[in-house]
Amino acid sequence: MNFGSLFCGCGGLDLGFQDAGLNPIFAYDNWQAAIDTYNHNFHHSAEKRDLSVEQIIIPKSCDVLVSGSPCQGYSTLGKRRVDDPRNNLLFKAIDAGTESRVPIIVLENVVGAIQGVFRNNWEKAERQLQNNGYWTKTIVLDASNFNVPQQRKRVFLVARLGKKDFQLDPIKQNAKGLGHYIGNNKIDPEDIPKNFQLSSDQLKISKAIAQGKKLCDVRLGDRSVHTWDIPEVFGTTSAEEKLLLVTISKLRRRLRRRSNGDADPVELEQLKQHCGYELDKQILSLVKKGYITKKDGYIDLSHRFNGKYKRPFYDGFSPTVDTTFGNPKNFLHPTQHRGFTVREAAKIQGFPDSFEFFGSIHNQFKMIGNAVPPPLAKALAESILKVL
Question: What is the pLDDT of residues 166-180, one digit of tens each?
Fold first, then answer.
């Protein structure tokens, strides 16, 4: 069985399908760094094509067409713009595949593609395939169920030519703890690129973040370490000031003024009423120290990110490997005071050690973060082979 790939990237999806026994016959992408990596690791070459403007003709020998179109417009990590032109690239494989009557068409994307208003686009894709004579199935798979040590969900739209129903039942293999895959090898600091090394202040923050925790002021749960808990970096606070910061963190989510988002700045008068005493002295002090902001009679926390310096459990799962995974300000190694290396990120994604990445460190992390974990892709491909 032959397959072809659109938006192939560095080849995570393709590697899984190849490992399942399918033969790759073509692959297209518009990113040269990813193409260079792809061509080094596969026995056939990917071609540089701008799929947003080029018309693609699928050869008759293609049994399965896979497409991992850009997810940035759908991703909850981005702006989720309905009018993002990349959203429409979902239909590129449908147009090309249905024109050539490819027996199986597989579309992959982030789960955000089927949530909220974006669900309309996905349902449009299903209808277009069905109107062209295909039976469709939408399935959401979690990588942690397929020997990949991270919490990563992806949605797949699988379409089979003909009006006969079919079942998809990828064989699961639950992942082990993160440490099983990456080990606990010490890294020479000189081997870590300068832009991924910890500064002196970042090292102090790292030492305050235990496994399973993150730096976060806007949540008060057990997983959060707050900036006011690290005075050697962010400045000392009194007991009264800490209590006020905790109160602001609670009220900004409780006293809502907008219908969107999950928090709002707190009106100063409401804050005073809640506390029951004058706050001018504490507020002035916290503004000077950089812990809070004051504008137009409203008070808010200065550090409003939902979590940085996330340190996973060594025996647990990694957060989703995204394109910024190598930045220690976002993710920390579970037991060492550093970020993850490219090789570790690749292992967490399920790439074998023999798979080599090329280009800048930034681009290597980007292509790994954009990839579909190969073990997940393999399990899906084996299920599709049964259908074929």
Answer: 999 999 999 999 999
What residues make up the domain containing 122? 2-175+356-387
Beta-bridge mates of residue 386: none
d(CA 273, CA 267): 10
Identify the active-site residue in 8, 62, 71, 216.
Answer: 71
What is the token pair recorded at 99?
């024109």
365 touches 344 (CB < 8 A)? no
Based on the fold, state whether residues 235 and 132 are members of the same structural domain.
no
Task: Give the E-state strand segments of the chain in sequence order.
Answer: 2-6, 23-29, 47-48, 64-67, 104-110, 134-142, 153-161, 213-215, 224-225, 266-267, 292-295, 298-301, 308-311
What is the greatest pairwise CA distance in the chain?
77
Helix 12-19 × helix 374-387 angle, to 10°: 50
Q: Higher model confidence: residue 351 or residue 259?
A: 351
Q: List, in sequence order, every residue forming a beta bridge with 299; answer none if it has no partner.
A: 266, 294
* Judgement on whether residues 53 and 157 belong to the same structural domain of the protein: yes
CA dihedral sign of residues 87, 88, 92, 98: positive
163 plus 259 within the same structural domain: no
Q: Domain holding 285: CATH number?
A: 1.10.10
The band of 187, judged by pLDDT with boundaries at 50, 70 and 90, is confident
State whether 273 and 164 are in the same domain: no
How much is the pLDDT for 232?
A: 97
| Alpha-carbon span 328 to 324, nearest angstrom | 9
Closest CA to 88 of 116, 104, 102, 107: 107
Cα-flanking dihedrals φ and ψ of residue 39, to 5°?
-70, -25
Q: Minimal CA–CA distance to 234: which of 254, 219, 217? A: 217
Question: Are 138 and 221 within one domain?
Answer: no
71 among known catalytic residues = yes
| Identity of residue 308 | K
* Of 201, 300, 291, nearest in space to 242 by CA: 291
Q: What is the mean pLDDT of residues 281-309?
A: 95
- H helices within 230-338, ranges in order? 231-234, 239-254, 268-275, 280-289
Is 108 within the bounds of a domain?
yes
Asked if residue 145 belongs to a domain, the reply is yes
End-to-end CA, the chain? 9
Question: Can you tell me whether residue 227 is helix, strand or coil?
Answer: helix
